[in-house]
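Tokens as discussed.
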């Protein structure tokens, strides 16, 4: 499967008359080679893929990056090793990830390689990563399943007096217990009036009867991220809480029905926004409806007011409308879906009816 990804890179290199393309970012390195170590550079040529790393990762690279030629950093710095490899392979024109490389890394590289031979390329690999293949979708589905299972395990634990931080800790522990290597972002648990903060990370606030509790969390499974949000109530709800919750649920359901390959991100954003606008709550939804997810938790394309590009088939993207009323509270519901030609496949299976614990 990865060699198809390499072939796409090589085809783009040929169009740009590049002898080589240098990958320095962790996510793109894993995407192209399967190597998950924290240090290494990848040089793609028209005929081969070279993974450069040091002593700490040679055995791991041999196991993970099958089919790649391994080059060990020894007494030379990475840029010197790269220059020597380029000279050996007669690589004259080199593309780089301009949006992933630091200024210092670029200057070091430019001192070793003729600056005019370097072609800065933004989003060169990221453009290919927008559309997920079968292997990636399976890993994303498993990551989301782990999050679903963690939530189901933690819900019965939530009681008045428990802190937001304790809820977050339980979610993270359960995801790791189920096979996750870590969290995909800092876990958000925001209760009561704090739930009006879209990114209200967990604090020592204790949850109380009558609180909305918004939990936005995710895990990393074999490099791929999950993302899910559910808002529940503790003990009881009033009429306004029910109204706000049902509006958010309707906005999400309407958006899910509208999603299919070929529509623009702004069109899907408008579907949810219109539900809120018609109900008089339009000013309380101020963020994008969704972002793509993969090796990184925030990828392109997106559902947002300015997203005028069409969404391709096999994009994996969140659908997360929310209403946030200052000094009152808020609700967000988030699913992760795979965009298909005639609709979408939902990877999230946690219930969406209002749960009152």
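Sequence:
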């Amino acid at each position: 499967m990865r060699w198809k990804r390499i072939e796409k890179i090589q085809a783009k290199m040929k169009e740009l008359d590049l002898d080589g393309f240098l990958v320095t970012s962790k996510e793109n390195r894993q995407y192209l080679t399967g190597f998950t170590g924290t240090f290494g550079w990848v040089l793609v040529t028209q005929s081969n893929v070279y993974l450069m790393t040091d002593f700490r990762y040679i055995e791991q690279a041999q196991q993970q990056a099958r089919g790649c030629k391994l080059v060990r950093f020894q007494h030379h710095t990475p840029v010197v090793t790269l220059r020597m490899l380029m000279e050996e392979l007669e690589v004259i024109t080199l593309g780089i990830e301009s949006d992933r490389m630091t200024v210092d890394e670029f200057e070091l590289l430019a001192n070793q390689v003729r600056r005019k031979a370097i072609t800065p390329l933004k989003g060169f690999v990221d453009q290919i990563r927008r559309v997920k293949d079968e292997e990636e979708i399976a890993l994303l589905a498993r990551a989301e399943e782990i999050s679903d299972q963690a939530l189901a395990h933690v819900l019965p634990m939530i009681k008045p007096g428990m802190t937001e931080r304790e809820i977050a800790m339980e979610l993270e522990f359960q995801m790791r217990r189920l096979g996750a290597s870590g969290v995909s972002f800092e876990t958000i648990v925001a209760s009561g009036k704090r739930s009006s903060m879209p990114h209200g990370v967990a604090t020592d606030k204790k949850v109380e009867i009558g609180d909305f509790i918004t939990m936005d969390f995710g895990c990393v499974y074999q490099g791929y991220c999950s993302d899910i949000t559910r808002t529940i109530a503790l003990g009881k709800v009033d009429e306004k809480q029910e109204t706000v919750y049902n509006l958010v649920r309707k906005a999400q359901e309407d958006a899910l029905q509208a999603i299919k390959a070929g529509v623009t991100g702004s069109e899907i954003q408008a579907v949810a926004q219109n539900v809120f606008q018609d109900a008089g709550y339009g000013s309380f939804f101020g963020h994008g409806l969704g972002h793509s997810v993969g090796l990184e938790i925030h990828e392109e394309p997106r559902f947002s007011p300015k997203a005028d590009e069409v969404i391709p088939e096999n994009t994996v993207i969140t659908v997360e409308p929310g209403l946030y009323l200052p000094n009152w509270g808020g609700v967000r519901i988030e699913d992760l879906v795979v965009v298909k030609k005639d609709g979408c496949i939902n990877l999230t299976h946690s219930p969406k009816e209002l749960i009152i614990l």
